[in-house]
Write a structure and sequence with these properties.
This protein has about 375 residues and is of the alpha/beta class. It folds into two domains: about 140 residues, no CATH class; about 220 residues, Spore Coat Polysaccharide Biosynthesis Protein SpsA, Chain A, CATH 3.90.550. About 50% of the residues lie in helices and about 15% in strands. A seven-stranded mixed sheet has the order 3-2-1-4-8-6-9, with helices on both faces. A three-stranded mixed sheet has the order 5-10-7.
Length: about 375
């Protein structure tokens, strides 16, 4: 046990050093200084929004976008087979602003997942030199697009993705979502996406901004049409073809209420938890074991064990706290307070992984926004 404690402590020390260096190199959209003389010939930006049963958020989200200080924008809003008032609300907003075009999808083409299909259809109707793919529950500050485009052009970036603030109101939902972001950060090391020599790639569905030619060169969403983790895979496709990618923090410029309740979060992550482990049971075992040993057991050990082993685990928890502070606060506002329920959040996430894996296996696939996709289809590679 002493040896395991030392290894755990060393592991979190290495992660802390890596996260500290990485997060300090992660730029913030708030720090981008605009040069308004830059816009002598402003390019057309196409914003493509995919919406399915989003009557709660679609109005506020679109209106926040329509208030952008950057004016040369067209919107293609795709109503993906909604059964609520989403389509009617989109039509009402279109009647208020001629820059909006609406596509109503009645049937899903074979071999596609719904959101990927909707974004692809939106792209086909777009004309912009730059394309921004975003979700229907994302709220924009008025100069978000202008700053993002300025950053892209001055840094010659092919793909820019922004990390939004997760505006989750309920305590346990916020604790769970913050833990998820923490785990994603140290596991995926998203700051490495900004290293052109690294193979690490990132894409966030709230804000995937691409040069049109780069998007077309990677084969558009057609190359990832059956991936439930489409946003991440879009970033991977960009990086794999040697194009320039950047992740920028935008907590003050972009906001999304990812999940309202803990139940919604668990259900929502059914679609991509197993996918994130490449639909491999061996990876599930590794993930669950790793979470238990590195993030849950240290808290149990300081209660159950004594002597030097307990001291090593106390140091492990201290290092874990510092890693959490480095990563979670950069991905979500006021995240640090939720470290005090970290062991419970860990257990919830272990449960989330096991639950998603079992449900996907029993069902033979996933249910995503009312549509069933078979595991055979999801595992298929082109």
């Amino acid at each position: 046990m002493l040896f395991l404690a030392i290894i755990t402590c060393f592991f979190w020390f290495v992660v802390l050093v890596d996260a500290t260096i990485g997060m300090r190199r992660l730029e913030k959209l708030e720090d981008v200084k605009m040069d308004h003389y830059f816009w002598n010939d402003p390019p057309l930006v196409s914003i493509v929004v995919a919406a399915r049963n989003e009557e709660k958020n679609i109005g506020g989200s679109l209106r926040s976008q329509l208030q952008q200080t950057y004016k040369n924008i067209e919107w293609i809003v795709v109503n993906d087979r909604s059964s609520d008032r989403t389509g009617d609300l989109i039509n009402e907003i279109r009647d208020e602003d001629e820059r909006i075009r609406v596509i109503h999808i009645e049937e899903l083409d074979e071999g596609w997942l719904g959101k990927n299909h909707a974004l692809f259809k939106g792209y086909l109707s777009s004309k912009g030199e730059y394309i921004l793919f975003t979700d229907a529950d994302v709220y924009f500050k008025e100069d978000t697009v202008e700053k993002a485009l300025f950053y892209m052009r001055t840094n010659n970036v092919d793909h820019l993705t922004l990390a939004p603030n997760m505006n989750v109101k309920r305590f346990w939902t916020k604790a769970f979502v913050t833990f998820f972001l923490f785990g994603f950060s140290y596991y995926k090391r998203p700051w490495k996406a900004n290293d052109d020599k690294s193979k690490v790639a990132i894409g966030i569905g709230a804000f995937n901004f691409l040069k049109r030619n780069a998007y077309e060169e990677i084969g558009t969403h057609a190359t990832i049409r059956e991936r439930p983790d489409d946003d991440l895979m879009l970033g991977i496709q960009i990086k794999n073809t040697g194009k320039k990618q950047r992740l920028v923090s935008a907590l003050e410029y972009l906001e999304v209420e990812w999940y309202t309740t803990l139940k919604e979060a668990l259900i929502g992550l059914e679609k991509n938890t197993f996918a994130g482990l490449d639909f491999r049971y061996s990876m599930v075992l590794v993930a669950v074991s790793g979470l238990f040993i590195s993030q849950l057991f240290p808290f149990l050990a300081i209660i159950l064990l004594e002597g030097p082993t307990r001291i090593w685990y106390i140091f492990s928890i201290l290092l874990l706290y510092l890693v959490y502070k480095q990563t979670a606060n950069m991905m979500s506002k006021n995240a640090l307070r939720y470290f005090f329920v970290f062991p419970i959040s860990t257990m919830l996430f272990i449960y989330c992984i096991i639950r998603a894996t079992l449900l996907t296996t029993i069902r033979g696939g996933i249910v995503w926004r009312g549509t069933f996709y078979s595991l055979k289809q999801l595992r298929k590679r082109d």
